[in-house]
Amino acid sequence: MVKLHKLSAHLWVTVIVMLGFLAPEHSGALADDQQHVSVEMMQSEQPLSLAQVTQQPFVGSRTVAMGEAMLLNAGGDYWFKIALPADSCPSASCYLRAQNPAIFNIDFYLFDNGRLLSHSAAGSLAWPPGRDVGASMAISGAQDRIVYVHVQAQRHALFALEHQTQLAFNKEQQQHWFGWSSFSGLMLGFVIYCVAVWLAYRAGYYGFFALYIASSSIFLLAQVGITKFLTPQSVHSFLVHYTALNGVIICISLLLFLSRLLRLDERAKTLHKVFIGALWVGCVAASVSPFMALAHQGVIMEVLFGATLVLAIIASVKYSPMQRWGRLLAFSWLPLAAVVLALALFYLRPYEVGIYLYAAFAFALVLNCLLIGFAMTLRERGQMMAHRQIVYTDSGTALANKQLLNKTLKSARHEAITLVMFKPRGLVQSRANFGISHADRYIKSVIHHVEHQLDGLPLLALGHQNSAVVCRFSDDIFALGICGTLELSTIEQVVCVINSVFNEGVEIDDTHLIDQVDFGVANYPLHAQSHEQLVRYAMQALYRDRLPGQLWHLYSLEDSIRSQRRLSLASDLKTAISDNQFRIYLQPQICLQDQSVYGAEVLLRWQHPKLA
To answer: 98-112 pLDDT, tens per residue?
Structure first.
């Protein structure tokens, strides 16, 4: 599981990634030479071939500025003619670069004196990183060149051509690859972690969470063109052209994740039915999306994803407990919802700021996954603490129990500890006469007074409950530990305090209950060599018969020998009966006056095979 002490490290990773994305891109446009670059744009209702464009002048063309963002309509066929004079590139080579390559089909054609020199198409570039993610073409500045750019818009979006130096181009690509590589690595780590937890603990919601992270990341990487270099061209084209299908997978995995995490099938029947209906709608949308235009697929995905986020927010706010993890889960959807709303507005009207929305979507997705991960960590921590409360706490009195005492003793391996076990004599009668709940309230009240009176003494704190020093070892036996070497004065003080509190008694249900207490004491390492022996020897001392006026008994070796002898004789006695080891002897009773036998005494003797 993700540990809470790793929270700061994860936040720093997020900050670094966000700073890498948010760093302003230095386009390196040749501002001083923009007046030397002529860009003509022509839109055609019918697709034109390269020969048609080069052999006839642009009809209905208009001049645009280099770097200007232009709105291109979905399904439109556009041609750009760029005249680059020899002095347009002060360095050895320059680059023409197109923004949003995943949204457009782009082809570059470089001509010199009417002769085609090179051709570059979007998606044809290869690894390694440092190459342009989008479509670009390197152009030498030695002589006049003409570049034709053919653009086919797959949906309504902004398009821009940039003229950059080689140094600026390489720097921008390094920043671009660093940001998206960091994003990819972080999301891949999330997926691997969730899958490992799912396989190890069979927690189904971790599997759906991993699917949600993977599908969201693939969608985003496909939109910015990273998948061109990570997958074959056919796979990338499938991811771009079937956007709605990927969006449906995101929505379905998110709904299943929340349904399993919040147990909506048990706690919210109505909302669970709404989730099931949304899943069916998503399946229908996935089946018909391949037959739709890319622009319509984008609208369908925005609607489905927006509706899914609304359901996620409603479910998180209403059906997650009002604890820290529930509030964190509800808050985790807000950044993502804001970005999705901005993307929806971008689909309706592609503002120029739209080119930064994919980076914002990446920030929101990373933040969303981190917050959900922290929320699940807090949830599991709460469940673990509740389980610990059940395992290490007595159910009737909420006192520490035997398991917590043993765990604390084992953790204090090299410390000297004196264990004091005490047994109220009248507790069994109190339980029988007044009931179990009444006896538990009595014990709880008395032990509270005992702990208050013993405050300040060097007592052993049980577990993480620093104020708990007394444990309920069994129904009628209690125990506490004294830290340090064996000090008779300290033991006497503890015994006197406990005995006085029980003798003083408490008022429960208009009944004043008092009791007498027996004590047994043993020390580690003076008497016992292990903490298991320490508990056993203290109990042996507890059941030792005391002399009149004696409040407590300290363990001695004779106690252990006597106890073992009793157990051995009890075991041998059962064997003696089955093995017929008893013999009957008759001792006659004689009358002294006449020496006559008038009776007999029967004696039963045990012929033990080992003992005389």
So the answer is: 765 555 678 888 887
